[in-house]
Amino acid sequence: xxxxxxxxxxxxxxxxxxxxxxxxxxxxxxxxxxxxxxxxxxxxxxxxxxxxxxxxxxxxxxxxxxxxxxxxxxxxxxxxxxxxxxxxxxxxxxxxxxxxxxxxxxxxxxxxxxxxxxxxxxxxxxxx
Length: 128
Prior knowledge:
The chain is an all-alpha fold. It has helices at about 15-30, 40-60, 65-95, 100-120. The protein has a single domain (about 10-30, about 40-125), classed as 23S rRNA-intervening sequence (de novo design (two linked rop proteins), Up-down Bundle).
């Protein structure tokens, strides 16, 4: 029987982790221009949630010996991805980000969401 699965050395090899990490870094940079009064509210929330997507993917990687735990952490990552999208909408509604910038980030998170759903639906490609 032929093994068609891709061999990953670690979570840093996962396209979804790379995209989520880089997008969180971009969000960190763009939120530097938000008003100071948002420091302990919107800025903290969007930065925390965006970073948590990547962190949950990494955590899932280390739980892949247990497929249910692996999937659970990916579901957590997916939930955080949804949360980031809400904070992006708030950023748009308060004119902290342009529609173009929000659309740019939303497209990134749509892609991340699709990759996470694929992993959730086919954990056997990653678990051992």
